[in-house]
């Protein structure tokens, strides 16, 4: 597979991973070009771990790092893709608290609830018939 094919594969996978909520970065920036070709074209496409397994692992790492914005993006994508439901997202924080500490997990509560509310809002809008 050449670089252009890997980038195209990475572009499709980033859309899938983030359920269409993240804009594909333009070509020509070394950081994002490498990210698309390696992380999304190579790692996220592997099937040894399920997408749900990868997402839960990633959420644990992000929570431990204390990155609430990224955590929210990942929770919402997980909800939209059906990998987790709101109760499972909240339960994840209970588990994180035991291993990463309550302050770290507590910092993810707000972003988690925001992601759940946005998911419910998006779902309600999608269910509303066009007039």
Question: Any low-confidence stretches, pLDDT <50, length ≥5?
Answer: none
- The counted number of beta strands is 0
Strand content: under 5%
- Global shape: globular
Find the structural class using helix and strand composition: mainly alpha
Domains counted in the coordinates: how many?
2
Quickly give the CATH architecture of the largest domain. Up-down Bundle
CATH top level class name of the largest domain = Mainly Alpha
The helix fraction, in percent, is over 70%
Alpha carbon gap, first and last residue: 46 Å
* CATH fold node name of the largest domain: AhpD-like
Radius of gyration: 16 Å
Topology order in helix (H) and strand (E) letters: HHHHHH
* Biggest sheet overview: none
Give the rounded overall mean pLDDT. 93
Please report the number of helical segments: 6
Question: Can you walk through the features of this model?
Answer:
The protein has helices spanning 3-17, 30-43, 51-65, 68-80, 86-100, 102-127. With 131 residues, it is mainly alpha-helical. The protein has two domains: 3-43, no CATH class; 51-127, AhpD-like. It is globular, with a radius of gyration of 16 Å.
